Amino acid sequence: MKISLNWIKDFVNLDGISVNEIVNKLTMSGLEVEDYVDQNEKYSGIIVGLVKDVQKHPNADKLTVCTVFDGKNDLQIVCGAPNVEIGQNVAFAPIGTLIPKGKMEMKKVKIRGIESNGMICAEDELELSDDHSGIMILSDEFSTGTAISEALKLNDVLLEIAITPNRPDALSHIGVARDLSAIFNRELRIPKLDFQESQKDIKQLATVEIEDKINCPRYSAKVVTGLAIKESPEWLQNKLTKIGLRPINNVVDVTNFIQHESQLIM
Amino acid sequence: MQHSEIEKIKSDFDQEIENASTAGDIEQVRIKYLSRNGIITKLFVELKSISGEDKPIFGRLLNNLRNSATESFHNKKSIIETEQSSKSTNLDFSLPGKSIKIGSRHILTQTLFEIKSIFKGLGFSVYDGPELESDYYNFEALNFPPDHPARDMQDTFFISEKFLLRTHTTPVQIRIMEKEQPPIRAIMPGRVYRNEAISSRSYCMFHQVDGIYVDNDVSFAELKGTLVSFAEQFYGEGLKYRFRPSFFPFTEPSAEMDITCYICKGKGCRVCKHSGWLEILGCGMVDPNVFKYVNYDTEKYTGYAFGMGIERIAMLKYGIDDIRIFFENDLRFLKQF
After folding, report:
1. Is residue B246 within 8 angstroms of chain A, CB to CB?
2. What is the DSSP letter of A113?
3. Distances from the Cα of A88 to the Cα of A45, A142, B83, B205, B239, angstroms
4. Which residues in chain A are contacts of B249 at CB distance < 8 A?
5. Do B73 and B149 belong to one domain?
6. Which residues of B touch A27 (CB under 8 A)?
7. Domain that holds residue B54
8. pLDDT band for position B1 (cuts 50, 70, 90)
């Protein structure tokens, strides 16, 4: 099960505790952390770059020679993406950075005779999706030179936890937060529900009939009205993407969100 | 018919046999003298026309002639055959000989022997059990209720509703406890089966060793002492270890035993997934529910149990990174052990 530490921090304050300590204490308390990714480490060195110029590569049809500004210098980059254009903000990996996909170190190379000082990344190279159709184009709001981890909020620690069958209570972020609050003796803050219920009789809107009372002793339902189905807000999409889920729309996303927050399956 | 004629035939025959040097030559001589129309055979026809006292005399002479001729022929024939066969055998005594390849014990057998010998030294006896098990022994009596999610921990090959290929060697614990009363101190090695996708880390069949100790006042401290002693004898003195809480339905509390990663010495590497630790076995105190299935007095007896995968243990010890290689019978691999 994937757990985001930033999400956990909604429920328990972990200030002053190192990732290492969290991983070790969780493991030794019975929630085995099989692996973890510290995104700050993973995306270290990759920054927001500005494409200042795009020229055709003299010796190749499908390549372009771009000038990318990294906040200090203009760098010459050979790029193979079909969608690179002047004025774009892009995810730029300078010489010396480790590309998340394949853990390859960026080196100064000559591509078909032209020097290239880094790489403009596609989403798959940053392990954000499987998309390799073109480079990733970032919002114009980011200032050139900003770390990508900061710009894209990739500053999380993602834990892969193996939950044993006796711990179904830990199958969510609140569940793991409950353990962490006990381990480090910090308060568990479960968000209070705050919503207005109309006085309307629900039976006019929906009915529930239980056909098998043995296997389903209870079914509870609420009706939410006045919804418009559209894309989820960015914070919600971000939370889901990080734990490996694909955002669909606000209604689907919110049920997934609640499931992974509180293990209430909807 | 004259005496001299018979003498002449005999000497001619002897001469021709003497001169014959090949199997073909003597066959020609045989046909000339001894075949149905041969010279000697024809004399017997002439014998019929001889009358009176001479007949038995000539008869005896002819018989002698035929017998000695036949004998000479066979003698010469066997001489020629012997000569030919020794000529046709082209033996080269300078060629190097073919050595007989001596097999060796499979690395898994060697590992198992080593594990067995360590536990025998600690006072454990060795037991066996069937690979085709019933649901009762494999799951139910080990405190896996019919719908318990812990059954999903082991992808099972079911043969029928009631029978399956055992997913662990733990059912042998039940079989021993049904037959015997405490104190029990036993290990149970054997083959187990899991319905898993075959990869470098998992195979559909592998080997386990389970162990159990039941007596009055068996404690977790004894479990630790025994397993640490095993690990030190197997992996070498001075290793670091830890017991990490875990879950198995048939033990409570349960733990997994980790040792320091042999590759990075605890610094963190790819093999230990940067944790510095490698899991070597699962263990715990026998759940009293299990004792109820074998009618042991849960107030009187406590026990510990453990289980380990032989492939895993061997992979860690010898730095093998693909489980499939154990079962491919590649001599280049097998010869290294």
Report:
1. yes
2. T
3. 19, 11, 99, 55, 55
4. 165
5. no
6. 244, 275
7. 3-89
8. low
